[in-house]
Specification:
Blueprint (H helix, E strand, L loop, with lengths): L7 E5 L1 E7 L2 E7 L3 H8 L3 E5 L7 H6 L3 E4 L23 H17 L3 E4 L1 H9 L4 E2 L13 E7 L4 H5 L4 E5 L4 E2 L7 E6 L4 E5 L7 E4 L10 H11 L1
Parallel strand pairs: 1-4, 1-5, 5-6, 6-13
Antiparallel strand pairs: 2-3, 7-10, 8-9, 8-11, 11-12, 12-13
Helix pairs in contact: 3-4
């Protein structure tokens, strides 16, 4: 019998000015660690550049799973807050596009994994709020730090990561108030929520605050790929 095709996993991307060869132009890009991690976990990666939010449902309908990638701070007015002086400039087009992707995935029962900013955006999409600055969860500029996270027993995350584990991390914002239906499924030693999930969702809805694409552990992405395959 022919082998079934690997599940197609969409990954949201940045829209940034980039340089290659003789060109310096606006580009849709994402660190190569994201598609590599999808491939190592048994999926096929498709990059989703920021677009018209009205087309998000059509894009998600063609996917077996969705990853909302890390990146810029979310505009604080999305969760009813004034900007902290340490909050970075927002990427409003990306906020709108990725919020539409999340809403489409939830509506279409497409498995969803948020990574770093993706966790924060899932929380905001469901009415939660964010801490706009905290220390100790990043390395020097441009370098990942590491710290240990402890999964919450009985959660989807704990099924993938049953014991505390050291993870690559680079963030200065985090969940404050959880959004509707979400539960915390991992914490750092300082109490910061490091993973969230939607246990009553009809499809896997999971997000982590760390950066699995910057490490060697494929278990979180494998959880998404397996859900997409199912």
């Amino acid at each position: 019998m022919p082998r079934s095709a690997p599940p197609l996993i969409g990954i949201s991307t940045y829209q940034e000015e980039a340089r290659w060869g003789v060109w310096t132009l606006p580009a849709a890009l994402v660190p190569a660690g994201y598609p590599r991690l999808v491939h190592r976990a048994g999926g096929l990666a498709a990059l989703l550049p920021p677009g018209d939010p009205e087309t998000a449902a059509a894009a998600v309908a063609r996917l077996d799973g969705l990853v909302i990638a890390g990146g810029a701070d979310i505009a604080p007015d999305r969760y009813g807050a004034a900007p902290d002086p340490r909050t970075g400039p927002p990427a409003r087009d990306r906020d709108a596009w990725e919020l539409a992707l999340i809403e489409a995935a939830l509506a279409a029962r497409v498995p969803l994994l948020g990574i770093c900013r993706g966790l924060q955006l899932l929380n905001v999409a469901l009415g939660g709020t964010l801490v706009q600055h905290l220390d100790g969860h990043a390395g020097p500029p441009g370098l990942f730090g590491r710290h240990e996270i402890t999964p919450v027993p009985g959660t989807l995350l704990a099924a993938a990561l049953p014991a505390p584990v050291s993870v690559p991390t680079y963030h200065h914002q985090a969940v404050d108030r959880l959004g509707r239906g979400l539960v915390a499924s991992a914490h750092a030693a300082d109490g910061t929520i490091e993973a969230i999930e939607l246990p009553d969702a009809p499809a896997l809805t999971l997000a982590v605050q760390w950066h699995p694409e910057a490490g060697e552990d494929t278990r979180v992405m494998t959880t998404l790929v397996n859900a997409a395959r199912a």
